[in-house]
Amino acid sequence: MPLTDKLNMLADGLAEQGYAVIDHFLLPDEVQTILQLDEFQNGLLQFKKAGIGQQQEKQINESIRGDYIQWIDRNTAPPPLQVYLEKLNTLMGFVNQTLYLSLKDYEVHLTQYPPGTFYKRHLDQFKKDDHRKLSAICYLNPNWKTMEGGQLRLYLQNKTEDVLPEAGRLVCFRSDLLEHEVLPATRPRLSLTGWLLDQVADLRHL
Ligand code: OGA
Ligand code: MN
Hints:
The strands form two sheets. A seven-stranded antiparallel beta sheet has the order 1-9-6-11-4-3-2, covered by helices on one side. The chain is globular, with a radius of gyration of 16 Å. α1 crosses α5 and α2 (28-35) packs across α5. It has helices at residues 3-17, 28-35, 38-41, 55-64, 79-99; strands spanning 19-22, 48-49, 68-71, 105-113, 119-122, 132-139, 152-155, 160-163, 170-174, 179-182, 189-197. The termini are far apart. β7 and β8 form a beta hairpin. The protein is α+β, with helices and mostly antiparallel strands. 28% of the residues lie in helices and 28% in strands. The structure holds N-oxalylglycine (OGA) and manganese (II) ion (MN).
């Protein structure tokens, strides 16, 4: 399916349900080249614990989320990540046109959840002045099995929906509306986690 068709499905999902799940947003070869990057080959060496890590808050943070992240600097990102950023940029232009949004930029980090870690139910936009409008997560785990856990659980109006973190799959949702959580998994869970912003991203993460 051409990228435009996938983006049409994504725009429909966002407009009608506030979220969309798009398979093969990244193709298997594109996922493989990303997994071969030093960042992912070196385990957690180049990653930082996510969230604010002040001494007193650390304990609290640990009970909320256990993921490790590395922000992508688009100016120095290696080609396999540029491919992803380029697709996100196309996605942004597409939803701006079809949904009359005025998204201006995006920020993305590499993410690893070691086995047993999770991220409790939350909203990605927690302050009124938050500039994150859409969350976009692309998974990097080939052949993920249901019994391995690690589902993204979306809290919809009257039900929940679980999404398996299968390689190439993109999940996109309204950052201000959709509560969600990451369930613990029995194997490392890798992804590219990003947000589309209504203002230009600054360098605060770098
Ligand atoms: C997050 C998040 C979901 C996922 O990083 O805020 O909710 O499926 N990630 O990784
Ligand atoms: Mn989240």
